[in-house]
Write a structure and sequence with these properties.
Number of strands of chain A: 11
CATH architecture of the domain at 288-450 in chain A: Up-down Bundle
CATH class of the domain at 288-450 in chain A: Mainly Alpha
Helix content of chain A: 55-70%
Radius of gyration of chain A: 24 Å
CATH superfamily of the domain at 288-450 in chain A: Butyryl-CoA Dehydrogenase, subunit A, domain 3
Structural class of chain A: alpha+beta
Largest interface: A-B, 108 and 107 residues
Oligomer: homodimer
Largest sheet of chain A: 7 strands, mixed
Shape of chain A: globular
Strand content of chain A: 5-15%
Chain lengths: 600, 600
């Protein structure tokens, strides 16, 4: 199976060279002493060591063993529990939490970078941490002081873990349909009753207690999404000091058998008048959830990027090793009885695509995380709004596109191995199976596409798009005299105009027929994603060219960056054309068939 | 899991209306009384019943149970053996074989249609038959009379099964590297020694003997592909009457653990001076194999088409059933608490894509099979050559594109199910896992692409392409007065010219740098595939329009055909643009990075 090697050099490139964090985080007193190379590199190196040596070795066994369910208990694969303890001891569970509750108060960006390594080395294991983080963030933002003291501190310490209980069997994307009830009790708590499905990390043996964050309806709550409230439901009830009391009436009744992420327990959770505590205002549960959902979407985007990275690593090693046929331009390695397959253009194209997706995806995910930090910490309302809007616009793009491109990279990974890619032992097919979940959970690609086009672009009357195209125009303007960038900037400039035009075109059509929005949405998301990638690749090319011009000891690294940018522009960016053409044909042929007439 | 329902109406559409088999097979005396609706429909109905009721119910269990290996023996999943017996009793193993050896002498086209149903209902089970068929064909074409009497008759009767033993661990796509040795023995037989991997159906419990067709090298054979010979190696030695004698020295030493097709045993086969018999001339084994390989490629194309079909069926049923959110244009089903997801354009687009791939794929696969029949049976050398060349040109396209589009359809199938698609129980993820093998075996997509561009198009100096564009031009010419087809014909006409131009462009570039061929090949294959599909969809639209104009009781069926053609032209055919643009950027950015500089 592919050995995971944290791509530290490229992570540093994005952090220090592209995002310039040493300078940009100076404005925040909380981070001024922390976001420098020494501190950040130390975090990254400890995390890389943990990922490469502690959890990567558990990845394949975790897949093969899976989780075991017996009488309400879930046993995770061998080594998962010990790795969790080590992770907590290393302080990673407390990374971004408020120091008041035991946290280290580090920014989201650092967490996202570390999260990339966790997901790349062991997706299933990393999910336990991801869900816990979601619960922590929700408590931090919406919990009372007492709730934080009781629950958050233990989550931060990694002694307990958390979950997010949203989905019900009939209510996935459409949370307005949920039925779980919350009955107010005399003591101020609530009795929560209902069944939740697809609860990742809902039950396991990593920690002594599990804190569920649960969506449920109060009696007489309005129907739909405006009648949903949020509750804390601990697995074990606890006293005010956090000591465990009796078992609460929430049990895992089954775990799912899944295509992938076997090491993570996907639980059916039954709440039978379980004791719960309201977080945030009544009937505003979905609003409280949005904080989590947006963070979770960036987190899922990072999983997609991690899939691209590990699929690339595995395939690259194999492509350098495996011998088959001779290069079309003549024998390259006469001492071998065939050339390594990396000489073949079709293999190279797949590797370059993976590389362009991984490195471009890293740039996008980290870029978003940086803006999440700005939104959270800036005191400048204009800066806050700008970052908030950019985040709103880019989050569905990152979530959908990084996971879809992660799936594509995983596919190439198997393909480069040929028939061997299909064999479990090599570990490449596991990447496909694990990554497959990422375009489904936290809002499918189709949901993200509607979010982007309907809620973000059209509802803002194009403002959120305009922010982005302005950013690109600004970059073009600032670099117009840079001859090395000319071909990139010309492409970007054309695409930028085309992007605004096609958006206007959809806007106009949507006024005649709202289905035009849905029919255009997925193409629009892909179309937009390639342009966003093109912008980031142009920025990265600029930096690389600058370093090369100045003189550097890392010439090969920067040359590779330039060549990958060129590859992206030559071979991938053209995909915008198909999506543009498809948008232009409108909704008619999509909507033409009656539901009854699809098959005979 | 999706229930398999044989798409008989659409199969009949392709057979009788598109390919006009009743008329076209009249020219062959062998088929004149057989290829009529009565006979063919009866075959199809018996096969559909067998597939829907005998092997489809074994599909999911087959995946879950898998094959078991113990001390050289393989146990197939429950029911597989009984289904094989029933299949043989129904006469399907003898379908296309020469009546002289117990066969029914039916054409390949009928086998391909039945094979679609077998693969759609139980891919793993169907493979046992596919491999047997390969062995039968090889024996029929290259075996001696005695070999046929001894081995072929038993394979035809389904009492024995066969395999094709090509791959070795270091030699997959590059068969020139194989090392298995064949030592001539005093009695005229050969002692075969070596290890073969990825031998589908290499060992199992379905039949009493297994006839391996094995590639091996004679002593002092020339190196590479010109020194490979072909041998029959039976699992049990047999006397001239076909009675089983002692066990031959060929054993299965392990079976692979794979991403999918768990019900089919993928075996490591060890030959330890096993007794073998030469088939065909010495050192011409690969040439003898080509017959099999080309048929096998059409067979694999059919697997891809079958994946599109079953993924479509499963997703369609779910999309009509599952409720989530309301249509953007307003509530469609007020009596329900949400609309079925088939109202949403993004879901419809995926369903329509699957439908366009399944029905277009069926047209292409059957079209090829018809030409395979012509090549085999025609006495007209011109007709033979035309069909042979068309087959040579279209086989890599069908193999690569039907399997890639099958994978895409399978992905959409999971996606339409949302999170539920990831759960094993629903059966949608199994389609993804099973279908994944199809772009790998029988020559990867990349190998097919090189075959198409380098061997078929460039080596023929464009002749094989010209045959195809002439066929399209002829269709355009014949229908130029048909106003209903105008928009299709205009597109086809432009694409046809563009196709020739881009081929010339590649030809020119390849003279400067042979790597241009490899760099263009995969894009060229996709590009060509979409045009071939466009041609077939235009032909199908023409038929549907004609039926509607004439008046029909099946108005909805033909309307759906027209609307699917329109969808293909609106939403899928645009993909040619990205591939064209990508080809035009050439090899430079693909070849730019040194093998050492892909990662740092």
């Amino acid at each position: 199976m592919p050995l995971y090697k944290a791509p530290l050099r490229d992570m540093q490139f994005v952090l220090y060279e592209l995002l310039n964090i040493e300078q940009r985080y100076q404005q925040f007193p909380e981070y001024a002493d922390q976001m420098n190379m020494d501190v950040v590199n130390q975090y990254l190196e400890v995390a890389a060591d943990f990922c490469e040596n502690e959890i990567a070795p558990l990845n394949q066994n975790g897949d093969q063993e899976g989780c075991h369910f017996e009488q309400g208990k879930v046993t995770t694969p061998r080594g998962f529990k010990e790795a969790h303890q080590k992770y907590a001891e290393l302080g990673f569970t407390s990374l971004t939490a408020d120091p008041k509750y035991g946290g280290q108060g580090m920014p989201t960006l650092l967490r996202i970078a570390i999260s990339e390594m966790l997901c790349g080395s062991n997706w299933s294991w990393a999910m336990y941490q991801g869900l816990s983080h979601g619960a922590m963030r929700t408590l931090e933002h919406h919990g009372t002081e007492q709730q934080k003291q009781t629950f958050l501190t233990k989550l931060v310490a990694g002694i307990w873990t958390g979950t997010m209980c949203l989905t019900e069997s009939h209510a996935g994307s459409d949370l307005g349909l949920i039925r779980t009830r919350a009955e107010p009790q005399a003591d101020g708590s609530y009795a929560i009753t209902g069944e939740k499905i697809f609860i990742s990390a809902g039950e396991h043996d990593l920690a002594e207690n599990i804190i569920h964050i649960v969506l449920a309806r109060l009696p007489n709550a309005p129907a739909g999404t405006k009648g949903i409230s949020l509750f804390i439901v601990p697995k074990f009830n606890v006293d005010e000091f956090g000591h465990l009391l009796e078992r609460n009436h929430v049990v895992c009744s089954a775990i799912e058998h899944k295509m992938g992420i076997h090491g993570n327990a996907t639980c059916v959770m039954n709440f039978d008048a379980a004791q719960g505590f309201l977080i945030g205002p009544e009937n505003r549960g979905l609003n409280c959830m949005f904080t989590f959902m947006n963070t979770a979407r960036i987190g899922t985007a990072v999983q997609g990027l991690a899939a691209s990275q590990i699929a690339f690593q595995g395939a690259l090693e194999y492509a350098r090793d495996r011998l088959a046929m001779r290069a079309l331009s003549g024998i390259q390695y006469p001492e071998k009885n065939a050339d390594p397959i990396i000489v073949h253009p079709a293999v190279r194209s797949m590797l370059m695509t993976q590389k362009a997706f991984a490195e471009g995806g890293r740039a996008l995910a980290y870029f978003l995380a940086q803006h999440a930090d700005i939104v959270e910490k800036t005191k400048d309302p204009q800066q806050k709004q700008a970052s908030d809007e950019l985040l709103a616009f880019l989050t569905p793009i990152a979530k959908a596109f990084l996971t879809e491109s992660g799936n594509e990279s995983a596919k190439h990974g198997v393909q480069i191995f040929g028939g061997h890619g299909f064999i479990i032992e090599h570990g490449m097919e596991q990447i496909v199976r694990d990554a497959r979940i990422s375009t489904l959970y936290e809002g499918t690609t189709e949901i993200q596409s509607l979010d982007l086009l309907a809620r973000k672009v059209l509802k803002s009357e194009g403002k959120l798009l305009k922010n982005m195209t302005d950013l690109i125009d600004q970059f073009i303007f600032e670099n117009q005299s840079n001859i090395h960038l000319k071909s990139y900037l010309d492409r970007l400039s054309n695409l930028n105009m085309e992007w605004l035009e096609i958006t206007q075109y959809i806007t106009k059509n949507a006024k005649q027929n709202p289905e035009e929005i849905g029919a255009a949405s997925v193409d629009y998301l892909y179309y937009s994603s390639y342009i966003v990638f093109a912008y980031l690749w142009a920025r990265m090319a600029k930096i690389a060219q600058h370093k090369l011009d100045k003189g550097t000891t890392e010439e090969k690294f920067y040359q590779a960056k330039l060549k990958t940018a060129q590859f992206f522009y030559d071979k991938i960016l053209n995909r915008t054309q198909q999506h543009l053409a498809s948008i232009k044909t409108g909704a008619e042929s999509v909507m033409a068939l009656d539901a009854e007439d699809f098959a005979f």
